Amino acid sequence: MSAAPTIGITVSLDPGRRIRPGHDYLYVGRSYARSVRAAGGVPLLIPPDAEPADALRVCDGIVISGGGLLPARLGAGEPRPEREEQERVDWDRRLIDRALAGGRPLLGVCYGMQLLNLHLGGTLVPELPAGAVDHGGAGRIAEHGVEIEPRSALFALLGARANVASSHRQACAAVAPGLRVAAIAADAVVEAVESDGALGVEWHPELDPTGSAIYGDLVRRARERA
Question: Which end of the chain is more exposed for a tag (fewer CB within 10 A), N or C?
Fold first, then answer.
């Protein structure tokens, strides 16, 4: 049996405003690491203090974890208190470039999917309106169904429909060139996108029953790549 692949998980930054005033912290939900471990991978948290090229020398796959709000398009919009730290956004974009260029399988979760779409040339809905589907957001989890595109790779993992744990206030508007829509919610919000090397999901598979298939697929592809 080949060695367990190492899966790098990105982290959020707190420059002394949330966890402990005046002290910089890195943080990420432990459920990401637990999901990677349960799928047979070795989880490794990677901070923006590491060069992306160095991180990818030891990581066989990448998870861009959830985070704060993003602008509707890169370089646009006024800062908002809930917005993700620019240092993280810039570093994650460099990591995405390196991972895709190097053929590393990549999973983008919530913010991770949104940033992948922005980075590749798409745009976002800056704030979802209230609608028939409750997508959660601001740390609140909501459960809802998604319909999965039959021709997608995600369909092979989850089938035609899945119930997911959702917590997002933003969503894809224009889907980036090179990405394909893989799932939508009943209100037509794009819930997953994919390419040959990447999968992005708006929901949190580490918190719902889709996690076994999604993280399992990431680890399988990373093992094949290693």
Answer: N
Tell me the domains of the chain and their CATH numbers: 6-225 (3.40.50.880)
What's the number of CA atoms in the CB half-sphere (13 Å) around residue 183?
A: 27
- Please indicate whether residue 110 is annotated as part of the active site: yes
pLDDT in single tens digits along all 226 residues of the chain: 468 999 999 999 999 888 899 999 999 999 999 999 999 999 999 999 999 999 999 999 999 999 999 999 987 666 666 789 999 999 999 999 999 999 999 999 999 999 999 999 999 999 998 878 999 998 899 999 999 999 999 999 999 999 999 999 999 999 999 999 999 999 999 999 999 999 999 999 999 999 999 999 999 999 998 7
Residue 204 a catalytic site member:
yes
Active-site residue, from 84, 191, 202, 206: 206
Catalytic residue among 59, 110, 119, 194: 110
**pTM of this structure:** 0.95
